[in-house]
Amino acid sequence: MTQSQKDEIDFTALPKIELHAHLSGSISRQCLHEIWLKKKAEGKTDLEDPLVVMPEGKHDYDLKTFFPLFSTYTYRLIDDAWSLRYSTLSVLRDFAADGVVYLELRTTPREMPAAGLDKEDYVRLVLDTISQYEAAEPPASGPGMMHTRLILSVDRRNTLPEAQHVLSLAEKFHSPDDRNVNVVALDLCGDPSAPDIYKFAPVLDSRAPRRRLIPTLKTTLHFAEAECSSSDAELSTLLSWQPDRIGHVIHISQTIREAIVARGGGTDEKRPYGLELCLSCNVHAGMISGGFEEHHFGEWWQEKDCVVVICTDDVGVFGSKLSNEYALVAHHFGLGRAEICALARRGIDVIFAGEDEKARLREIMWT
Ligand SMILES: CNc1ncnc2c1ncn2[C@@H]1O[C@H](COP(=O)(O)O)[C@@H](O)[C@H]1O
Fold first, then answer.
1. Ligand 1: does its nearest atom lie under 6 Å from the Cβ of 99?
2. pTM of the predicted model over 0.90
3. What are the tens digits of pLDDT across the range 168-225?
4. Binding site membership of 350 for ligand 1 (Cβ less than 6 Å)
5. Are 279 and 295 in contact (CB under 8 A)?
6. Is the beta carbon of 154 within 6 A of some atom in ligand 1?
7. CATH classification at residue 343
């Protein structure tokens, strides 16, 4: 694609779907800085300025330096109701300003003991903030309001009882008719070096007895993110849980690839996987070898038996908005306007919201 063809697409105005965004990782450094300034002035934090800890322009966090950012910094700064609301609102505004019309935000329920909040309070606060945002901030112009749904994450480092608690929260805040902002799915995320994901089957296997009671609750799994979490044994187990979508999909063997494609091409149950691919994150974090041209998006995007959705993962850390991810695929893989619009629209098939939302998106997304 030449520069002039690329210029014909306004990637920010392009209505987009974001399906793989971690709440805490999507908070901009500016927002963290604003929260820090207020807490510092009130004598409520002894943390360093986030703009010093994570300087603007630094995006080369690898999997060893990335996860501690949360435990050593973000979670210590966002530790009460005010900062959780403030940061959630800021994340919603940032996605909407970037032309996202449908967002699935994911987060790991976290207690905030100093503020007297338990994990249920955390989830309720995030859902309330989303509902209030949707009620209060209709767009001045553009294709339409951004609608958001929530996914609750199980962290690979969790114990089974902790994961079961996340499922209880999902059961509580899921609404099968999808009329309101609600919890639509469970996710498995966290440091891929944490072993023993097999224990999570009672929570994440869609055929587990508790999950059968709530069939409209969906599942997405971080999948083959690092070599240490990509044995055929682990990946076959994850697929046997029948997730609806899988994220990253980097270190896979031919056998696993064929298994992924087979479900979309199957005749009995033709249910193509949604593949949540995160280019900048994978390149900046060194999760793939090589640059953007080598990203496995190139191998997957034309695969008819899967639905590829490009996503940001942690825009606050890796610094690339969804509009920029689309510009990157146009540039590095030569997608023209029609292909970009088709790529963005195809995501509708694998969102976790109900038919009303899908119909709205079919109306407003570009053809
Ligand atoms: C590199 N890609 C990734 N792979 C795996 N897990 C990731 C991730 N990016 C983020 N997280 C998970 O999301 C949490 C932060 O958001 P929440 O506090 O849940 O909103 C991190 O602690 C990590 O467990």
1. no
2. yes
3. 999 999 999 998 899 999 999 999 999 999 999 999 999 999 999 999 999 999 999 9
4. no
5. yes
6. no
7. 3.20.20.140
